[in-house]
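Structure (tokenized):
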């Protein structure tokens, strides 16, 4: 295998890795932003729960 093939595989791997990372980060952000948890405001703080 010559040097040009190695460089091409490295570049392609880096591009594919960056795309997969971007998709993973985007999906995590979507899941976190779509989580709806109601907040309860009370004057008394309970440490038993």
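Design, position by position:
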């Amino acid at each position: 295998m010559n040097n040009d093939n190695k460089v091409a595989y490295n570049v392609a791997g880096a591009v594919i890795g960056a795309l997969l990372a971007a998709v993973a980060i985007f999906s995590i952000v979507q899941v976190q932003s779509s989580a709806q948890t109601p907040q309860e405001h009370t004057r008394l703080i309970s440490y038993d729960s």
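Reviewer-requested clarification: The chain is about 65% helix and 0% strand. The helical segments are 3-34.
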